[in-house]
Specification:
Pfam families: DDE_Tnp_1
Protein name: Mobile element protein
Strand order of the largest sheet: 1-2-3
Strand content: 5-15%
GO molecular function, one term: transposase activity
Number of domains: 2
Domain Transposase IS4-like: 37-86
Order of helices and strands: EEEHHHH
Low-confidence stretches: none
Keywords: Membrane, Transmembrane, Transmembrane helix
């Protein structure tokens, strides 16, 4: 623990310094009392933070809806989460160009969302194959040949 039992604005605060898998320093501040609890909570929170960041930006623009009724926000979050998952499924197998520094030019979510928008906004009469392929991403993968099942 880097800082133990500090008081910030009258509230207890503990700070942990660790390293990411890539070796970069990571500092996490929390009111949790043990360093292990702080890091465990951070790992759990980080998963949901990635989703909320994508819903607020990356084409979903959740905050621009200005919705305030809890029921409406809940339903919208459910729909946007499904759209996010679909975007990940659509983008995960696409070719990603890397910039000179080695990072991707676009995120998996952005690539997938673009392909969903492109496929769903085709002119009537255009081939719907791309959209059908994207819809089939939701289907469970079945084996193509005979399969032996033992009990």
């Amino acid at each position: 623990m880097l800082i133990d039992n500090a008081v910030v604005y009258g509230l207890p605060m503990n700070v942990v310094l660790t390293r990411t898998d890539q070796g970069e320093p990571l500092i996490v501040a929390s009111n949790a009392t043990k360093g292990q609890h702080i890091l465990k909570g951070y790992r759990q929170r980080w998963k949901i933070e990635c989703l909320f960041r994508a819903l607020k930006t990356k084409g979903f623009q959740l905050e621009n809806t200005h919705m305030t009724l809890p029921g409406h926000v809940t339903r919208l979050l459910c729909l946007l989460t499904l759209a996010y998952v679909w975007s990940v499924l659509a983008g995960i197998n696409q070719h990603m160009t890397l910039k000179k520094h080695g990072r991707r030019a676009w995120s998996v979510v952005t690539l997938g969302l673009r392909s969903l928008v492109r496929a769903s906004s085709r002119q009537v009469g255009a081939s719907g194959d791309e959209l059908l392929d994207l819809i089939q991403l939701w289907m469970p993968h079945q084996t193509m040949g005979a399969e032996t099942v033992g009990y």
